[in-house]
Design goal:
The complex is a heterodimer of chains A (117) and B (112). By secondary structure, chain A is mainly beta. Chain A has no helices and eleven strands. In chain A, the strands form two sheets. In chain A, strands 2, 4, 5, 6, 9, 10 and 11 form a seven-stranded mixed beta sheet that branches. Chain A has a four-stranded antiparallel beta sheet with strand order 1-3-8-7, with no helix packed on it. Chain B has 112 residues and is mostly beta strands. In chain B, the strands form three sheets. In chain B, strands 2, 5, 6, 10, 11 and 12 form a six-stranded mixed beta sheet that branches. Classes of the chains: A mainly beta (117), B mainly beta (112).
Chain lengths: 117, 112
């Protein structure tokens, strides 16, 4: 089946630093990937849609300059949290849509837990 | 717009009890419906899915039927185990797959 990996699985950083999270589709090419954020005991919130070779589409209220997304290849999308602050601490989950039918299925990565001190 | 309404938890059951977690949806067109499970500290795992009306998704003893007439996709299991303790999310995907809508999640704890 379709497998999506994320790296790192957890990261702790100091306030003011930038953190990059990678999302890879391991056995398929993904033209579209998605980034979600999950706060403790809450549901997933879609942050942005990452399209290979073009700019990401951000959801309302998500700061583009804060959360930089790059989808440089068909198997890799990266999320960079710039100048991280404690309020950015969260669980970040990516997903990828498998090309071809059914077009409406996404496969999720295992998530990255970010803690900003 | 499209949305998913999920039964609020937490839910606590004894081992071997019957489980129902309600999920209803609002959508235009013909969405696909999913149940995901999240174990503590982990990402989401697809539990089961249904892509059209009257489809029944099943996996690991869990079942859910896509009911268009009641716009529901309730999750059921006849006999829960301690290892089923997790958070369960109902989700809807639009026709294009560009939008995934999640319910708020239901925490299940199964006690021996």
């Amino acid at each position: 089946g379709a497998v999506v990996s994320q790296h790192p699985s957890w990261v702790i950083c100091k306030s003011g630093t930038s953190v990059k999270i990678e999302c890879r589709s391991l056995d398929f090419q993904a033209t579209t990937m998605f980034w979600y954020r999950q706060f403790p005991k809450q549901s997933l919130m879609l942050m942005a849609t990452s399209n290979e070779g073009s700019k990401a589409t951000y959801e309302q209220g998500v700061e583009k300059d804060k959360f930089l997304i790059n989808h440089a290849s068909l198997t890799l999308s990266t999320l960079t949290v710039t100048s991280a602050h404690p309020e950015d601490s969260s669980f970040y989950i990516c997903s990828a849509r498998v090309p071809g039918p059914p077009m409406n299925e996404q496969f999720f990565g295992p998530g990255t837990r970010l803690t900003v001190l | 717009g499209d949305s998913v309404t999920q039964m609020e938890g937490p839910v606590t059951l004894s081992e071997e009890a019957f489980l129902t977690i309600n999920c209803t949806y609002t959508a235009t067109g013909y969405p696909s419906l999913f149940w995901y499970v999240q174990y503590p500290g982990e990402g989401l795992q697809l539990l089961l899915k249904a892509t059209k009306a009257d489809d029944k998704g099943s996996n690991k003893g869990f079942e859910a039927t896509y009911r268009k007439e009641t716009t529901s996709f309730h999750l059921e299991k006849g006999s829960v185990q301690v290892s089923d303790s997790a958070v369960y999310f109902c989700a809807l995907s639009s026709n294009t797959g560009n939008q995934f809508y999640f319910g708020t999640g239901t925490s299940l704890t199964v006690i021996p």
